[in-house]
Amino acid sequence: MFSRKISSSLEIRLTLPKYASEIYTLIEKNREFLKEWLPWLDNNTSEEDTQNFIQEQLIKFTKGEAVHTTIFHEGAIVGVAGFNSIDHTNGIGYLGYWLAEEFNGKGIMTQVVTNLIEMATVDLSLQKIDIRCATENSKSRAIPQRLGFTHEGTLRRAERLYDRWLDHEIYSILIN
Q1: Would the pLDDT of 127 be above 70?
Q2: Three-state SS at 45
Q3: CB neighbours of 27 closer than 8 A, spacing ≥ 6?
Q4: Which runs of consecutive H residues, i.e. helices, occur in the chain?
Q5: Whole-angstrom distance, CA of residue 61 vs CA of residue 167
Q6: What's the rounded Cα separation, in Å, for the pair 32 and 4?
Q7: What are the tens digits of pLDDT across the range 68-116?
Q8: Nearest one of 164, 108, 104, 153 to 130, comparing CA atoms
Q9: Are strands 92-99 and 67-73 parallel, antiparallel or unpaired?
Q10: Is the pTM of this model over 0.90?
Q11: Closest CA to 170 of 134, 144, 132, 142
Q12: Residue-range domains of the chain with CATH
């Protein structure tokens, strides 16, 4: 297992099955908040679903295809972030994240993404990181904008979210 200390109160750890209960509880507590932008919530309706997702991520991790981390703030789980997909042929990591509502606006995700950029450079030997956010999701878009990512463009109707289509903004940063 790995962990990365970001500050005295912030740390990311490889997501493990033992975190499933707490992650699921956090999802449940924030379900309505998260549902505004995340389409997978209807497929995660039990602790077992969360457990299965974590197992899938660990298999991808062992194959070098993904790195899913859990965010701890002052010892409690507050969200997740990581490389949902890693394209080693082209050296690109596709970064995704979510944070519980009460922890938004505190700079936590900016610090986490900064740390993941370092991990991508040093540990994963990637040359580029890609972040895709719904056009209307200003909080999520603020992270790559704040960190100097380049806006690559807009993908129209990139994702179906329940009863509507979302456009995605693509941001990237070259790191190697």
Answers
A1: yes
A2: coil
A3: 34, 41, 44, 50
A4: 20-35, 47-62, 108-122, 138-146
A5: 29
A6: 30
A7: 999 999 999 999 999 999 999 999 999 999 999 999 999 999 999 999 9
A8: 153
A9: unpaired
A10: yes
A11: 132
A12: 3-174 (3.40.630.30)
